[in-house]
Amino acid sequence: MDGPRQVRKDEVGDLVDVLSDIFPFREWYSRDYMVSRMSRARSWRETLVIVEDGRPVSHIRTVYNNVSIYGCRVKVASIGSVGTHPDCRGRGYAGAILKQTMEQMVKRGAKVLIVSGGRSLYRRANCVPAGRRYEAEVRSADLGGQTSDLTVRQVTPEEWPALAPLHQAENVRFVRNVGFFSGLVFWWDCQYPQIWVVESRGEPLAYVSLALVWGKESEKRRRVAAEYAGSRAALMDALPTLFEAADLQVISLEVLGHDAELLYLLRQREIVPRTKTLSGTHRILDLPGMMRRLRPYLAERLPRVDMRRLRFDQTEEQCVFSYGDERLECGLSEAAPLVLGGPGAPKVTGELERVLSAIFPVPFPTPGFNYI
Ligand SMILES: CC(C)(COP(=O)(O)OP(=O)(O)OC[C@H]1O[C@@H](n2cnc3c(N)ncnc32)[C@H](O)[C@@H]1OP(=O)(O)O)[C@@H](O)C(=O)NCCC(=O)NCCS
Fold first, then answer.
1. Ligand 1 site residues, Cβ closer than 6 angstroms
2. Fold of 2-110
3. What share of the chain is helix, strand, coil (3-state, %, to 5)?
4. Is it the case that residue 271 has pLDDT exceeding 70?
5. Which residue among 18, 61, 84, 91 has the greatest number of ligand 1 atoms within 8 angstroms of its CB, and so is best to mutate?
6. Numbered ranges of CATH 3.40.630.30 in the chain
7. Which strands, in side-by-side order, build the sheet including 310-314?
8. For residue 252, is pLDDT > 80?
9. Residues 317-332: pLDDT tens digits?
């Protein structure tokens, strides 16, 4: 057994074959396409594997992004295509790669790990459901015969530059450069995401992504809207037209917890969203580093005296929140819901409670097109 270590470029072909035996990639992509995408420097450099008899048998790929929270940039990491060859499972390979991957993430400055799943492998590494999100089932029948002069149009990723200003105006979002679509992991489009833009007299006002629901690919007339940006009012007004144009019956709209505007518009239409956490699971990698990056956010919510007395620390297994002499120590799996919101946050009392409730939960975005 060799590893965990970075995959070598000449091993990428074998790695693609193993991953294609684990995941149904062959249905979507040719081997050549996958090899070319995984051979890009930014891909194989962030890929850790365990190798047996000269062939990779276990794999985790990491992707780094920045998120912007009211203008504060925080580096986040995500992992994807986590897989071990069936003959080699249960030997601790994925767990060992994940441990090394997380150490590398901290060294590279990532503050939060976002994982798309919640299985035991991730829970054992303190990745837990966290963050605030609502899910609204919007049915075309519920919207009645509303009309508007808005138009909707499906666009391709190449048209992103026209939508980027809408995305850029979001106050909590993933930071993206203009060509980000071409740098996404090759499997990002497995759920056939469509991008629809809402326009008024040719001017883009909002956009929404509509993807098939994992495991419900047969339900072609149901889609999940995992990302939207721009005018919420225009988006809601355009929904009847969108249902018709996209030939849908149900849109499962994922609303971020801080989006009071969209939640208000849904309530006006008597649509009651369910409370959820952000999709997948989250782990705080570097609490003090994250809070340093968020200092401008804190400074708009806390007086200077509170800022001076508030401290954040983290060890391998614990996070520490302190205010003057008051101190709260909690496990990493409790820290994520405390910081980002969600069930399982520890009880906070005293002055620490007053101060932390002014800053937590920190609004946090969901990856949307940055899904890995
Ligand atoms: C998930 C997968 C990558 C695990 O690979 P692996 O090399 O067998 O992983 P490990 O040997 O480190 O751990 C295997 C299991 O034992 C569990 N485990 C490990 N040590 C343990 C311990 N000391 N006590 C209890 N459980 C333990 C792990 O949590 C993991 O549980 P899970 O498979 O239910 O998540 C592998 O099963 C796979 O490729 N599955 C198909 C693809 C897939 O579903 N990928 C994940 C996408 S979200």
1. 22, 58, 82-84, 89-95, 117, 119-121, 124
2. Aminopeptidase (3.40.630)
3. 40, 30, 30
4. yes
5. 84
6. 2-110, 133-276
7. 310-314, 318-323, 326-331
8. yes
9. 999 999 999 999 999 9
